[in-house]
Amino acid sequence: MTTLDMAVTEEMKSVDEKVQKLNAGWRKILVEQLNLDQETFKLAQGSLGLPTTDSSGLFQMADHIPPNTTLFDAGSTALFSDNYLGLLSALLPENGTDLRNELGDNYPNWIAYRNAFYKENPTSTKSQLEVFEVFANQRLDPRKAATAINVFEKAMSTPLNKAFEEYRDQNNYQTFTNDAGQSTRLPIYTPTIEEAKQQVNTGASVEINFDSSSAEASLSKTEIQGAASGFYDIFSGGAGANFTQLNQKAASAGFTIKGKINNYKMIPVNRGHWFNSSEYNRAYNNKDDMTVWDPQANAGNWDSFFAQPNGGLARNVSQILVVTDYEFTVTSEATYSESEFKQIQTQAKFGIWPFFSATATTNHVTSSSLNAQGKLETTFQLKKGLYEIWGVNVLNAPA
């Protein structure tokens, strides 16, 4: 690595550290002024605009599993529903191990076959029994196939298999189609968008006054470390946009943010009928019980699902912070030339900290200008009747 490369690397590291402190300070002021829970609130990076005519945005956020940080990028997290299916696949039915004993070495092959079938055919209406009949007739000796199918029929009445049928019941999912004609199938949660609107429209209001210098001075080491995330830019423009120097300038000088949210609400989240709490709790409460956990399953074990902080179901979204009708002025305390301002205006297509949107889709309106001192002032306005997600409350398993 050349001396120049090393200098650039150190400069980028310095920016990352400064932005991490900015993020931690911004989250802290929101927790204080919106009266949020310091221990459970996670701030979504950027502004996540909600569709106003369907519930897809809420369902997607409810199904995400935020990482073990106080900030998160919703687009890069695992899904609760996917990991819950893995959990069901790692358990044994309540009536014992008759099927496993009957199939012998073919039992893991059946589990893999079933999981692969439903992954490749997510909208299939075939029951597990129908899928097993195909498997048995293809893979087993004809003399054993009939016996195995009979054993499986008896196992279908167990709570575990009923939970699996609930998971794959198409009535427990909803398909959304965007303006581009792209369809997304999501597990159903509450609230719906209409329910959320009603709650947010009668929510509280709050004025926010943020100064990064004073906010950072009050931060603890734990708060700074918790704000580690995958996005460390001040100006976001995607491919082809280079803001290295401007990010350094802006991060070093700091920011003030002043404005008001006229309505906000922390809205409770509930899973739909695709989720069976009894099976979830049976798994959680029987960590070392091999009559509950299938030792031959390759889907995982108690630690891979529930151990903190990296278990696939170690955390879940319990509430979503939704806002509407706000206006903020974000002032970068750095001074900018006209050419720098033009670059920001033309290339920062995804926005400016902390209201950027990594997907370049948002509901707020943005306008920027240089004031008399050459400082960058950016106004963000979300009109009444439009909604954004600003974060979530997250609880550890088994909540």
Description:
The chain is α+β, with helices and mostly antiparallel strands. It contains 15 helices and 15 strands. It has helices spanning 3-33, 56-63, 80-89, 98-103, 107-120, 128-139, 142-155, 159-168, 193-201, 212-217, 221-226, 244-253, 277-284, 302-306, 338-347, and strands spanning 41-49, 64-65, 71-72, 78-79, 173-177, 183-187, 189-190, 204-211, 235-236, 255-268, 270-271, 315-335, 351-352, 365-370, 375-396. Strands 1, 3, 8, 10, 12, 14 and 15 form a 7-stranded mixed beta sheet that branches. Strand 14 and strand 15 form a beta hairpin. Helix 1 (3-33) packs across helix 12 (244-253), helix 5 packs across helix 6 and helix 6 runs antiparallel to helix 7. The radius of gyration is 25 Å and the shape is elongated.
